[in-house]
Amino acid sequence: TTATRPAVHEFGLIFDETAWPLAYVRFPSKPLSNEGFEYFITRYTAMVERRVPFATILDSRGLSTAITAQQRKRLSEWFEVTGPLAGEHHFGIAVLMSNAIIRGALKAVTWVAPIPVPVMPFASVSDSASWIRAIFSEQGIPVTPAIEALLNNRS
Question: Residues near 93 by Cβ (< 8 Å), separated by ≥ 6?
Answer without folding.
Answer: 55, 56, 57, 58, 115, 117, 118, 119, 120
